[in-house]
Each structure stands twice: as structure tokens, then as C-alpha cells.
């Protein structure tokens, strides 16, 4: 048997009441609310999960997404790491002018890519600058260098190189034509020019020149014309070429390199040069012509020549003679020279031999001829053959003279005379001046003569000498 307690009954009743229609519906809606909440929770969880699954962070450079990362921290770190690495690479802090942000983005699960390519993408998209400098010439940025200090040293080097490139000169003034400054600037590392190249650009201009090989028939002028260059430009580009001595195969530079800097230097310098000595001749009446005696040897002197010159980038473009100062005087050479200058005998080796008056066999020599003393030389000739003066001189006699027949005497000075005898005719008169080789008369056989010939005498200070020693 089973019995209910009062409490049991009381409790049962509301329970039973719940089962009544109204109670019943009330229970159903509670369940629904719970279900909805549950469902919503599930949706929310799924939603959050889905949202999370499709959320990423993008590294955005100048508005362009370049890489995806899982979190903002990861993105920030990637950028920082990249810049740190670059700083390490260049040995100084790098700067980037780009705007770099890490942004949250929604992505499709399958598009989501993270990973190793980030640093590559950053290297590709982020501009990395380092602090450097630029050499500014006449307001134009010309050469990028690694630092202001390096740039200033370069400019100084160029100035020094061309204002002090000669030994023993005194610099009057030196100036750079262009306005040259070095400014600090953040620069692309790859644009930095090394020192050698920078020096070349500043002092020569162009790094490479086009070479032309001279072909047959070409002149500097035709090469200039063919290449649309001015002659001056071509000559300037080829300072070592002599336009007049161009040879086939010579290499000609076709591009005139224009330096970025022009250093003009005005300087003075001195050169010591030798100066020649003079030769003084003293006449010696007792010495035969052609004979010389050196009384004093000559010695060159020295003189200092002072110049003022202008050079542009080391090449002298102007030179002016300022003054000369004698350091040592030259010593003159003093020569005693025989003043019997019209004649030199064969024996003395002189150069002043007498010319043969006629050409012919010698028929009788000077000297003893049997008992007779022959005072001249007989030279064969036909009547009428021209007789020429053996040397220039003055006719001191032209006329008839006993055994000599028709005769001419010429005085050559310094005690020398030549006599011509047995002439058929005379073309000169006493007092005439004659030149060497001039026709003075004709061969004949006048006077004491056995046939037509010329009797020639050479007299020195009145004495007959052997003509053969004086004829050439
Ligand atoms: Zn004779």
C-alpha cells in the first residue's frame, strides 16, 4: 500500500498543475529561449571562430599590402628585423621614406599565406636610405658620396691636386671655376660613387671615351667633320696628338670629356738654361788663310728664365716670360785666324785654293828648268781660250811687259798676287775689280813664247811661289 504525505500531496499538486495546459506552454517557451541562446552562442562561437580564421595582418607599404602575418606583433617585428639587418649591412642606421603600417585584414582561408617570403617582399618594396652626401656643382646634384666628410675630402683633393702639381713653383692663386658644395642627404646605398670614380668624374668628366682608329686618307679635320665635332673639341680631347703628324692606326678620342670641376692655377716658376757663347775672331796677318788657333775655349753660360703660367686641371694653357737673370756669363771663344785669307795651300789643308785660270796640261812646272829658273807654271791652251781670274781681286796691271808679252797682274790682298802672261788679248784694265772665275783675257803666245799657253805666276809678298801649291 502506498500513501501520500500531506507535503507530498502539496508538492504534487503544483507539479500536476504545470502539466495543465498553461503550465505546459510555459515550459515549452523557456526551453525555446534556452535553445535560441544556445544556438546563438554556437553561432557566435562559430562566427568568432570563422572571424578569427579569416583575420590576418598585412604589412602595408605606401598603401600596398606586401605581406601577410599572423599578428600585429609579428608584422612589426618583421619590419624591425628587416631594417635592423639593413643597418647592419651598411654599418649605419638606415632610413626609409616609405610609410609602413601593419593593418588587420580579412582574408579567405585559402588565400592566407604567411611565411618565408616576407623578408624578400620587404626588401623588394621598402626603400632603404642611409645618411650620405651629395656633391653639388653650380646648384646641381652631381655625385653621391658616402658622407659629407668624404665629399669634402674629395673636393679638397681635386683642388690640391691641381694647385700643387708642379715642383718648385710658387702659386700665385688658385681657384675653382664652379661653385662646389657638399650637402648631407639620405641616399640610396647603390648610388654611392667610389672615390676613384668620383675623382675621375670631377677631373676628367666622362668615364669612357670612344676611340677611333685613323684610317687611310683621314685627317683630323675629316674625322671631326664625320663625327660632328668641332676641330677644337677634337684637339682638346686628344692633347697628345699632333694634327700634322697623324698616322694610320693612331687612336683618336672622339668624346671630349668635360670635367665637372675646373681648377685654375696661376703660378710662377724658373728654369735655368744654358746660354751659348760667342766666337770672337782675331785677324793674324802673319798666318795664312784657313789656319786657326784657338786662343781661348768658349764656355756656355747659365741664365734663369722666369715664367708665369696658367694651368687648368694641371694642363698648362698659358705661359708668359717674365724675366731673365744671368747666373753665369758665357765665356767667348777667341780664335786667331790667318788673315792671308785669300789663299790656303794644299799643305795647310785650307779651303781657299786658287781656281785654275784655264784647263789644260801642265807643260812646264815651277822651278829650275835647266839653267833657267821658271818662275811660273805653263798650262797648255789654244789661242783665244778664255782665261779666268784665279781669285777675286784688283787688276794692278794690264798691258805689255817684255818677255811676258801681254800680261795681267791681279792683287788679291794680303800680299798675294797672280800674274797671267803671253795673252792674245786682255779684257780688263788696270784698276778693274774682278771676281773669281771672271774671264779676264785669252790665251796667246805673245812675248818670249814658243807656243800658245798660259804662263801663270803666284806671288806672295813679291816672291814667286809654286802655283801648284795654291791651285785647287
Ligand atoms: Zn812660263
Strand element count: 29
The CA-CA distance between the termini, in Å, is 193 Å
Question: Main beta sheet: strand number and arrangement?
Answer: 8 strands, antiparallel
Shape: rod-shaped
Key structural traits:
472 residues, alpha+beta, Membrane-bound Lytic Murein Transglycosylase D, Chain A, eight-stranded antiparallel β-sheet, four-stranded antiparallel β-sheet, 8 helices, 24% helix, rod-shaped, binds zinc ion
Report what the structure shows.
The chain has 472 residues and is of the alpha+beta class. It has 5 domains: 6-52; 55-127, no CATH class; 211-257, Membrane-bound Lytic Murein Transglycosylase D, Chain A; 265-336, Resuscitation-promoting factor rpfb fold, CATH 2.20.230; 362-469, Glucose Permease (Domain IIA) (Distorted Sandwich). Helices cover 24% and strands 38% of the residues. The protein has helices spanning 6-18, 21-53, 72-90, 118-125, 148-163, 195-203, 220-226, 231-237, and strands spanning 55-61, 64-69, 94-95, 100-106, 129-137, 140-145, 169-176, 180-187, 211-213, 251-253, 263-275, 279-288, 292-296, 301-312, 315-328, 333-340, 362-364, 367-369, 372-374, 377-380, 386-388, 393-400, 406-413, 416-423, 425-426, 433-434, 439-442, 453-460, 463-465. Strands 17, 20, 22, 23, 24, 26, 28 and 29 form an 8-stranded antiparallel sheet that branches. Strands 3, 5, 6 and 8 form a 4-stranded antiparallel sheet that branches. Strand 22 (393-400) and strand 23 (406-413) form a beta hairpin. Helix 7 (220-226) crosses helix 8. It is rod-shaped and about 200 Å long. The N and C termini lie far apart (193 Å). The structure holds zinc ion.
